[in-house]
């Protein structure tokens, strides 16, 4: 029986500082091309959390504010943690343009000075895996109110059945050895890490032996995105494993991917699933 590869919950990618802090160099591109999060997901988090306008929400690894803004638009008082100055600058600009007040702190979650028992919800959009597994739940339990909600979520492409999967696989095989230094991310169909699939796995991987959280749950939201060749290559250029490829290998990969999309008519549709993981801070 083939063992299931390690997911980001099981390997500590937070120690890969080069990859973890690579996004600032492409902050504007990241904000332009990364998919956001649906109104249904925001509704699900706020309903589970019992949150009301004016409640405090902490966004860990806020990036350019893709998750912070929709929660602020619902009247939440959002504190956004983002250690990369380039990403934080874009988040600040986006919030100002939208007329939203978001407190942005330039800090890692592990080092942030946050008031204990203060937040009704802690969210993290496609970023929770960058926080140290040995401390993230302990710190979350400290900063959440009793009964408060931990809610990390991830957008993940679904490669099974995609008509361009075989062509993309061929392009990635040409540079596969150069991804070895940095474990593959979700845009590489050959090396995409598996994620937890249900509440039982979320419980097992994150909360075994942890008495701080209860009411473990997961939800999945599906959406589709149409990409032109240029848009998809722009998206690939925002993923850390692609950013850190040597330039000749990245050019070779992008040429192969671009040729595959062009051959399909210059665009293709990619299905995503957003995995939402939920847990409640015990009230006592």
Give a brief rundown of this model.
By secondary structure, the chain is α/β, with parallel strands linked by helices. The protein has helices spanning 17-20, 27-33, 39-49, 68-73, 85-98, 136-143, 165-173, 199-207, 229-236, 240-243, 247-263, and strands at 56-60, 77-81, 103-105, 119-125, 144-157, 213-228, 267-281. The chain has a domain at 13-158 and 193-222 and 272-281: Vaccinia Virus protein VP39 (Rossmann fold).
Q: What would you note in describing this structure?
A:
By secondary structure, this protein is an alpha/beta fold. It has a domain of 186 residues: 3-Layer(aba) Sandwich (Rossmann fold), CATH 3.40.50.150. The chain has a 7-stranded mixed sheet with strand order 3-2-1-4-5-7-6. Helix 2 crosses helix 9. It is globular. The termini are far apart.
Identify the notable features of this structure and list them briefly.
284 residues; alpha/beta; Rossmann fold; seven-stranded mixed beta sheet; 11 helices; 7 strands; 34% helix; 23% strand; disordered N terminus
